[in-house]
Design goal:
Elements lengths: L24 H15 L6 E3 L9 E4 L14 E12 L2 E7 L2 E10 L2 E7 L5 E7 H14 L4 H4 L3 H4 E3 L9 H16 L4 E2 L2 E2 H14 L5 H9 L2 H4 L4 H8 L1 H10 L7 H14 L3 H14 L5 H15 L8 H19 L1
Antiparallel strand pairs: 1-2, 2-3, 3-6, 4-5, 5-8, 6-7, 9-10
Helix pairs in contact: 5-7, 6-7, 6-12, 7-10, 7-12, 9-10, 11-13, 12-13, 12-14
């Protein structure tokens, strides 16, 4: 039977599986479901029971026909697998059915020995290397509630959008796509105004475009503007992977973690004023917030006088006309709240 594949951030994907104690018909049905489900997805080389919502330590692996595996195990079910030996290490690109929109660079052993049981409970010992070892390790990770996102050295550097078409894209489009991908992963599971947090980030990027801002670096910064403040991604990683301009804007709009939040806001506004074009992203954020009636919207009414006093003369980075339109939209949205 073909089963639904769980997609991150489903909490079950982060839940360790239980060892199989009974080898019987139910286990065979699970094995058959793993095979049927894997066959439904072209080029799939492995699937863990936890990915289809069965919280047992069972994986299916089949690298038959893969160009990187000249002598594969063939279709194999491993029950209660554990790695008993590993050698070497290399970094390779991995995909995952439970993370369908991305791939990631993950460092893993080159060769491993795995002990497990077959469907009848008989001991198995397999030795695999290269790509096939990577597949087996990837699936065993699933049984421990570990995803490729947990294995990357840097979310900003080592995670990539999965290509959906063959057309050549501009560097700017690639930059924005990578920023949106990082934002969706870093903020996964976070809520804002009763919606996924990424809905707000998408609204900020849309607000900038609505006001005539088409600079890819500013759109990327709009997607990433809260990633340093609200997620484990740090400012240096943003600068390294998305460029100094994006990094400077994201750093400027990020509030310092100070006990005095009023002082933290004023510090951020002052840095925004001095950072070219950072005011564009900040105004886009405020306009999107107020329009959707987010939890911060009412607070902005009381902050507006001080906010404008600090940012009225901000360095617009050449986007003076767009900034003027954004100020007008913010004033109109705030007036709507007060009426």
């Amino acid at each position: 039977m073909i089963r639904e594949v769980l997609v991150y951030p489903d909490r079950r994907l982060k839940t360790p599986a239980a060892p199989v104690a009974t080898f019987g018909p139910a286990l065979r049905r699970l094995a058959a479901d793993l095979l049927d489900t894997a066959r439904e997805y072209p080029r799939t080389v492995g699937l863990a029971a936890t990915q289809i919502g069965a919280m047992w330590r069972v994986v299916f692996v089949d690298c038959t026909g893969h160009p990187k595996v000249p002598d594969p195990l063939g279709p194999t079910i491993l029950v209660n697998p554990r790695v008993v030996a590993a050698d070497g290490a290399e970094t390779g690109r991995e995909g995952c059915l439970s993370l369908p929109d991305i791939t990631a660079d993950v460092r893993r052993p080159v060769a491993i020995t795995v002990e497990a049981r077959d469907l009848d409970g008989r001991p198995l010992r397999v030795e695999v290397e290269g790509f096939e070892a990577r597949v087996v390790l990837h699936e065993i990770d699933h049984l421990d509630g570990v995803l490729i996102l947990d294995r990357v050295a840097s979310l900003a550097r080592d995670v990539f959008p999965r290509r959906s078409g063959r057309g050549k894209r501009s560097p700017g489009a690639v930059l924005v796509e990578r920023a949106a991908t990082l934002a969706r992963l870093a903020h996964a599971g976070q809520r804002y105004n009763e919606s996924p947090y990424t809905d707000h980030l998408e609204a900020v990027a849309g607000t900038l475009r609505e006001h005539g801002v088409d600079d890819p670096e500013l759109i990327a910064a709009a997607w990433l503007h809260d990633v340093v403040e609200d997620t484990p991604v740090d400012a240096s990683a943003v600068s390294e992977e998305f460029g100094a301009r994006v990094g400077a804007i994201v750093s400027a709009v990020s509030l310092p973690d100070w006990p005095d939040q009023d002082a933290a806001r004023r510090d951020s506004w002052t840095r925004i004023a001095a950072t070219p074009a950072a005011v564009v992203v900040k105004l886009g954020d405020r306009v999107a917030n107020v329009r959707t009636g987010g939890p911060k919207a009412r607070k902005y009414v009381g902050q507006q006088e001080a906010f404008r006093a600090i940012l009225a003369g901000a360095d617009a980075g050449g986007f003076d006309a767009q900034v003027a339109r954004l100020w007008a939209s913010l004033d109109a949205a705030l007036a709507g709240l007060e009426s």
